[in-house]
Every structure is written in structure tokens, then in C-alpha cells.
Amino acid sequence: MAKTVPSGRPNHLLRNLNSKIASIPMILIAVVIFLGGTLWTVVYSFTNSRLLPRFNFVGLDQYERLWASSRWMISIQNLAVYGILSLIFSLVIGFVLAALMDQKIRFENTFRTIFLYPFALSFIVTGLVWQWVLNPEFGIQGIVRSLGWESFAFDPLYNPDIVIYGILIAALWQGTGLVMCLMLAGLRGIDEDIWKAARVDGIPMWRTYIFVVIPMMRPVFITTLVLIASGIVKVYDLVVAQTSGGPGNASEVPAKYVYDYMFQAQNLGQGFAASTMMLLTIAIIIIPWAYLEFGGRKRG
């Protein structure tokens, strides 16, 4: 009777056993805190909880009140404008700066440090700095008028129609340096032979960037987009530091709406409903992208 010869390979479940054991606390924390907290928030968004959570279901009343609120609609419009422009300008400015840095310029380390330094500051500090810079009396407008241009006007933080653009300026100043560094790392990973071949073929540099380099940097762009998008959805500090949501509610954003209703208006149910809508918006964007990105790669 032939004996079964052991394969010599460890059981699949026992591979990297120490690593799996070490990851158990992290997995439990992620499941209990993140997933559990998310489900708890969604469930209580269907209640009339006020100061304290109450398990008293009211159906979709909180969501009906939410979408009937002009303040919430203003916050959604502001987030859309801020998000679209932030994505476009962050990527364009960051990539252009990275392309310039990639030309082996002198004092590259110094310039890279200068551009990246704002990212080391907190959003509160950035907001306060730009609140002063955009102040009509002491900032840019005041300086230009003191030079003789009395008709010059630049006070976006005090104009309800353009206040969101003043917040966008501060956000770009702080975050563009990080985008530049990510793009520069991607450019430095491009094989030098590609540039040599493009020069030999007489292809203009801008065409090489658009049709060759940028498609090769697709993973870098995806990572950058995820980082920028996460910052857009949770934007709060800049708004509070610069305008506190004003003038009126002109610079309101969803994160501030949630905070105000949960901790100031003491209306947990309404805050939970707004949080759930923010989560749903992220899921609508992330799930199709994840399916196309990872599902398509797996099928390939």
C-alpha cells in the first residue's frame, strides 16, 4: 500500500501566522469602531434623538427635514464647487510644479521644501493666516489701495457670492505642495529611455507628457485623487477658521452642518442623517471605482 508523501508545504491558514495574530487587534478595532460606529449612526438617523440617543423610530422624517433645509442645500452646492475646483487646480498646479522640478533645476531641495512647508501647518493656522491675507483692511486689498489704486477690491471672505473661492485659495496653498511631491515621485519613476526616444523621434515635450508620461502615472494620479477627495469631503477646519460658515450661511459645508446639529443644536437625529448622506455620497463614488479598478484587474 503506497504511503502518502507529505507535500512539505505548510497549511495555507498557518502561513504567516505571527503576522495574522498581530493584525487581530487592528481588525477588531476597525470592525468594532469603524463598521460598528457607521451602522450605529445609520440606525439612529431614523430616530428623533435630540441631546441623547433615543431608540424611537420616525422613519424618513430626518431625511425629509434635511433635504428641505436651505442650509443643507447651500452646503451641498458649496462642497460641489469647492470639490470640483480643488480637484482640477490641485492636479494641474501640482503636476506643472512637479514637471518644472523634474528639469533638474538648481536649489531643487530648497524649492521643494518651500512648496511642501504649508502642508505641515494645521488647517486652523492656514485658515487664520489667509483670513488676515484676505482681510480688506489689512490684507491684499489694503496693501494695494495704500499704493494708490483706491478702486481695487479683493475681499472674497466678505462677499457671499465668492466666499467659497476664498476658502479654495487657502486650501490650494496648503495642499498643492503635497500633490507636487507625489507627482514628482511618479515622474522620477519614468524610465529615462522614454525621454531619449521621444527626443530622437522629435516629439514635443508637451505631447510626451500628455500621451506617454501621464498614462504611465495612472497609479500616482489615483492615489492623489483619493487623498484630495478625502480632504474635500471632510473640509471643516478651514471654513471655521476663515469664515465660521459666513457671511450668513454662504460658506456652509456638510461637515460643519453635521457638527453644528450634533453638538450645538443638540439634534443628534438630524446630524446622523446628514452624516449618513455624506457616507452614501462617498459610497456611490468609491464602490463603482473599486469595482472597475480591482474587479477589472482580477478578470484581466
UniProtKB/TrEMBL annotation:
Localisation per UniProt entry: Cell membrane
The protein's name in its UniProt record: Sugar ABC transporter permease
All copies of domain ABC transmembrane type-1, residue ranges: 76-291
Keywords attached to this entry: Cell membrane, Membrane, Transmembrane, Transmembrane helix, Transport
Source taxonomy: Bacteria, Pseudomonadati, Pseudomonadota, Alphaproteobacteria, Hyphomicrobiales
Family: Belongs to the binding-protein-dependent transport system permease family.
Ranges annotated as spanning the membrane: 21-46, 79-101, 113-133, 162-187, 208-233, 272-292
UniProt entry tagged with the keyword Membrane: yes
CDD domains: TM_PBP2 (cd06261)
Keyword Cell membrane listed: yes
